[in-house]
Amino acid sequence: MATVSEQKSSLLQQFNETRIRTLNLVQTLEKDDFVVQTAPFTSPPKWHLGHVSWLLEILMSKTSQNYEFYSREFNEYLNSYYLQFGEPHDKAKRGLATRPTVDQVFEYFHIITNKVTNILQNKLLDEKTQQLYFMAINHECQHQELLVYDLQHLLADRYRPATRNPLPRSLQQKLSTIKIDGGLYTVGYSGDQFCYDIELPEHNVYLNDYKIDAYPVTNSQYIEFMDDGGYSDFQYWLSDGWEKVQNEQWKSPMYWESIDGKWMTRDFLGRRKINLNEPVCHVSFYEADAYCKWAGKRLPTEAEWEKAACWNEKKQRKSIFPWGDEPPDHTRANLLESYLWNCTEIGAYPEGKSHYGCHQMIGDVWEWTSSEFSGYPGFKTGFSEYNDKWFANQKVLRGGSFGTPAISIRGSYRNFFRLDERWLFAGFRCAEVV
Ligand SMILES: [Fe+2]
Question: What residues have their beta carbon closer than 5 A to ion ligand 1?
């Protein structure tokens, strides 16, 4: 059990590292880049920097007496969707606001960093307050990933990362599926560190025997579906998904372009031919579901995904990560701090495979599951309006992506997006009945 001062230093250390990571992501941007919003679902980089600082102010106001907000004017623009703190600025119009200026946002960012650092250094914080600051750190991690999505939309190959590491060597892999015995499985977070309210409480779920792919579905597999008329045959699609295909003229994953009969993409690695051995990325839930139908398979439920990722049959216990309880490092998973700026080919992380032998369940691409996003039985909110107001019309994704900060991911983490969203780094793996 960590002592109070150990917990405090890890909180302070995580906070400082997180603030520095946010600044690193925007270190090479030009000033003009900070203001622009290229689509209603993205946000200008300056907004992310301001918003994460604003949430820290909200926590300070809740946990310190007579807290004076830095600026009432900032509050409206930097509030994302919390109605309890006033009417937020229109999300789709964040790129039209020239105030606060980029310089003001940076000044604000540094002032808030100093204020929070002082609190974390000097005050004896009770357990509840510590948990709130851990939440704010994890919230900033979520925005770092959102910022990476936005940077792809805004700049893609024109973005110059402060750090870029070489991609791991590619390994030839034979696709396979793994059989997993059913029975009762206890879903949820079992560790003693921070987790979100939606990962609790642990509870039993009955699973039938099932099979799950050892790897995420690759571009090569997905192109087979496309070449077989996947996007032009209604029979593979949910009704809402088919409507999207028609209205949006979907013919491929987002960012793909057919040039002279060859599929190309434009991402942080440049304008390039699709790499057939990478997991398919930038697909919506509808596309993942349609592929599975075409392949005669289905998406796993989140409980099936979690058991395949974390259950150790030999030890009869689950681990926090597929490989065990040790935190991720560059040998086990492709996460933000790998600074590869792309997903890696399947099989690139043999040391990160799960006890059952499933590869890349943490990192590379988020994986769509068939599960509706809602509270686990007995759910209690940890922070009102943060997660719980999204308990409708969203599906759960698991596992993190190459844009997810390492401290913020674990096997029990539940991400959630609407069924038609595909600007995130999302792919999937298939399951099937035995
Ligand atoms: Fe937020």
Answer: 80
